Amino acid sequence: MIRILTICTGNVCRSPMAERLLQQKLDQVRPGVFDVRSAGIQALVNSPMDTRAAGLLHVLGGSSEGFTATQLQESHLADVDLVLAMSIEHRDRILNLMPRLLKRTFTVRELARMIDALEADPDAEIPGGTSDEEVEYRWKRLPHLAALKRYQARAADQNEDEIVDPYRRDDSVYQQMVKDLVPALDKLVAFEARITPDLR
């Protein structure tokens, strides 16, 4: 099982949308292999997903049913394979809390760019195969391979690493959140979907 944790501030808008969409999309490609959760560094504990964010999630085909906000604890990071932060601040907070996660913690947009750079590198040795074991091995290696592209894939503008926080803001900001987030998630899923069976 590959354990992915998405992180934002209140855990009611950005990270739950990332959690629910990414879980749904990965299940369509490799069912039963990924476990996506979310938490907030200042979570509105036990709150449901923000109403407008939930509405957009439903439009995208996801569901907010049963969701409640969770405060980030060190225990959430103990056995995680990949941490996807919604902002640079969140990424840095995770690394201050647990520095050993340096090569497993990225903003979601940052990782999407790194995967682009990784796939464009003809010398990159990306593990193949589609069995559960091969998928798990690939995603346990992926953060380390992607981290090698951290500087090559660095954004010209730090805003390119951010998912805008829409909480209690205009509807247009919620729409911007979707525009920032969904293409990055789709790149992660498309990367996995392109992997073919190992025919050796």
From TrEMBL:
**Domain spans labelled Phosphotyrosine protein phosphatase I:** 2-191
What SUPFAM superfamilies does its record include? Phosphotyrosine protein phosphatases I
One Pfam short name: LMWPc
Catalytic residue positions: 8 (nucleophile), 14
Q: Name one GO molecular function term.
A: protein tyrosine phosphatase activity
Q: What residue stretch is flagged as signal peptide?
A: none
- Cited InterPro entries: LMW_PTPase, Ptyr_pPase, Ptyr_pPase_sf, Tyr_phospatase_low_mol_wt
Fetch the Gene3D superfamilies from UniProt. Answer: 3.40.50.2300
Q: What is this protein called?
A: Protein-tyrosine phosphatase
